[in-house]
Inverse folding.
């Protein structure tokens, strides 16, 4: 079945530095990838999404590119802010069961002053 | 703004007791979902529904039942609660795929369940 792997459970960075959160996936069908963000004591919210190979998608300063050749959809930002501290989930769906999202284990990003 | 509300927000139950978590959405979405969130496991899908009267099993359905009596309401039922079901439960709704909102789930605020 479908699966999503996020290798970093916890990432701590100083404000102003770049960040990359890793996401790889497995599916036998054409994938649709998502990043969701969850701030402390809040509900998860969609950050960005893509189903187009090798096309960069951006939102709120974050960006990601779906690479089907390497089954990856890493989340990046060039300069993190204190307000970026949150839990980030990568999620996958595919066209065989497209109304269902499968989430990775999440990466907690902490940005320090 | 899409709205998904869950109740109760906090619940303490005893082992072997019955627990019902309720979810209401005003988005008129066909699809609704129940996830549980545990540290190190992310969000795991328990049950989902494509519309009133339908329920489908997700990745971890054992020990849980679901009910979708109407477009707006989706309940998660723990007939015999166990301490391993202590978790935070999120309900979500989502539109059918094909439109601009494809893949966008709207989550409720979560229900924290503690089973003693």
């Amino acid at each position: 079945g479908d699966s999503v792997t996020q290798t970093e459970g916890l990432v701590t960075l100083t404000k102003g530095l770049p960040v990359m959160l890793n996401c790889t996936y497995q599916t036998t069908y054409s994938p649709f990838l998502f990043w969701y963000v969850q701030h402390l004591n809040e509900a998860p919210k969609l950050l960005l999404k893509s189903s187009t190979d090798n096309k960069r998608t951006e939102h709120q300063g974050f960006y990601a590119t779906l690479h089907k050749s390497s089954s990856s959809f890493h989340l990046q930002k060039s300069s993190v802010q204190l307000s970026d501290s949150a839990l980030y989930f990568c999620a996958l769906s595919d066209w065989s069961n497209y109304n269902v999202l499968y989430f990775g284990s999440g990466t907690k990003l902490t940005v320090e002053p | 703004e899409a709205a998904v509300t869950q109740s109760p927000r906090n619940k303490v139950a005893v082992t072997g007791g019955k627990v019902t978590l309720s979810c209401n959405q005003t988005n008129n979405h066909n699809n609704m979902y129940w996830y549980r969130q545990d540290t190190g496991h992310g969000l795991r899908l328990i049950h989902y529904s494509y519309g009133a009267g339908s329920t489908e099993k997700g990745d971890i359905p054992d020990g849980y039942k679901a009910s979708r009596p109407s477009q707006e309401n989706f309940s998660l039922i723990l007939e015999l609660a166990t301490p391993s079901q202590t978790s935070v439960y999120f309900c979500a709704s989502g539109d059918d795929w094909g439109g601009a909102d494809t893949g966008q789930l709207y989550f409720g605020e979560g229900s924290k369940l503690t089973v003693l």
